[in-house]
Amino acid sequence: MATDHRTVADTIADQNPRSFEARWRKQVRFLADLSLWRHPVARVLATVIAALLLAVVISVPLSLGGQLVFAAGCFAAALLLNRTPGRLTTLAMIVLSITASSRYMYWRVTDTVDFHNWVDAIFGFGLLLAELYAFLVLLIGYFQTAWPLQRRPVPLPDDLDVWPSVDVFIPTYNEPLEVVKQTVFSAMQMDWPADRLNVYVLDDGRRDDFRDFCAELGVGYLRRGDNAHAKAGNINAALAVTDSDYVAIFDCDHIPTRSFLQVCMGWFLRDDKLAMLQTPHHFFSPDPFEKNLETFHAMPNEGELFYGIVQDGNDLWNAAFFCGSCAVIKRAPLMEIGGVAIETVTEDAHTALKLSRRGYNTAYLELPQAAGLATESLSAHVGQRIRWARGMAQIMRIDNPLLGPGLKWGQRLCYFNAMLHFFYGLPRLVFLTAPLAYLFFGAHVFQATAAMITAYALPHLAHASITNSRIQGRFRYSFWNEVYESVLAWYIMRPVLLAVINPKLGKFNVTAKGGVVEHSYFDWSIARPYLILLIVNALGFFVGIWRLTVAVDTVVLTTIIINMVWTAYNIILTSASLAVASETRQIRSTPRVTVALPAALRFADGRTLMCETDDFSQNGVGLRVQTPMPVEPGTRVEVALFRSDEEATFPAVITFSGAERLGLQFEELTLQQQAALSRLTFARADVWLEFWGNRQHDRPLTSLKSVMVIGLRGIGQVMGNLLNILRGRRVALGERSSSS
Question: Per the database record, which ranges form the Glycosyltransferase 2-like domain (predicted)?
Fold first, then answer.
């Protein structure tokens, strides 16, 4: 499937044909377009020669001085390339990174594992296996993300008669009706022929108030007699009693925009083999990391890398995943594979894998066309990730993408890396404790001098950091991946390993949405592993200080310093993980979306005040006014919202009055008014675009500083909570002694 891979930098360079960059690009394009490369023999010969040259560069032995000169030259080249825009430059940086990392791993395997005792061997081979895992993930990650497809919507035919019918499924189990309402309202108002749009609420909770709500709105309501196979079973039961050509699926808290179907459906009409198209999962509420660390909208969240870069890279290899929501699936291929997969608890990815095995295409559009609620607490977030990790391990065990028919090698690697990713728990714990082997037990996990370790390891880490920052910088900041993994490592390690042994273990757990956190608190239960790791690393660091005072020579001194630097970095990661466990108060069950929309305020005496929204939710709106007007809280008003030539008015009461800002709470809205509110706010086609990938590009040193600041904050929160506990116990003891 062809697409235009030219970037803005290419266009700018072409507009300045005399610049060095333009001349360089012209030469590169001339060489790349030579007819010679279309001959299969030339391609094979070029590949063999390149592989041989790379093998020589990776394996040639160098002295310490030679390795330092080679590493410095390569990294200088990477820094220069990083200042040059363009995808070819990114590919060149990837080649340099792979060269540095492969050279390091070759040296590790061939020169550093001659262990002299069992203590060195246990710790040394454990670290080596963890590094091999990280190296494999790095290589396949480059393969996935080097050239994102950047697919764009395809216009639909002007003839509406050829637009297909669509069933919209909204599965729900135990979520409150207030959470589900907005999704239903917006789904009903998608821009699609009314006679070919059918909205169904799939209620596995079998609740009468849901049934009555759907009846009043005139949307479909389906319930079944049991909850077999959880969400997958719920959808399959609905497939059995519906018949539209396509199915659009939304989690009950994911609110679609009006443009969703018009943006997505064109690709199905162009490509007869397309079975599934996925769009990003965007969230208008902060996840626990963003909420507890106060980074919402300031930096990318944990999931944005997947939807911003990885899925787009998968799309190049025809391996885009179904993610359970915000997607359209063609009914015929879905029924051909027996419906949504029920063998694992990640039914979505497994369904996409089955479709790919049958030879169908999948697609991804990197345009947020829906938005939902993130998990409210760290414990709920951890539980959700445990389910994802267990499910991916189950797929690897029972339907491994590297084996079996129907997949091309690009698809196999993309699916395999998605599953391999969730095995990071044990390697991450190894990295968080590896330097302690030397500091506590004197174990030499590297059979090499500290200078040689630095000369080989530092280029590997530096190249990987700068290259990934270039590729991922819009959607993931440097060093934050280590924080995310450190928080989850302990919790996903056990279920993943158990799922490999017995894939039938574990069950589907529903992630709660729409709750509140009434009081700030420190989650000691969740934080226990990070606290232990922090204490152990801190002890190791102090042991290192003591070892420095008794070091007998420069070699030992350098080794101690390297391990102490590594331990200090681990202290930063574990202390930042502790900060995430400090749950902040969240009293709003309906989070507000910060966006400026035109509005007007109308008073009972006939006055009208033009203004714009500061934020909105389904329960209220914040207004920013240019002309201050004294308004008493409790005043009843009408607020008008606008979209193009459409207007709707809603009764409200003033709850807050400031110099340039007013807070309003909607009074009892009819279902028709609630639907109109959704149409003018959550369902707007443009409402989520400004939040997507528009932050400042990653700066590694700035990101490291932010992680360090968060780490100091985490330590301070732990100390503060411990002091509060001690004070509480002292007061309790005093009361007990006075009463006795």
Answer: 168-337
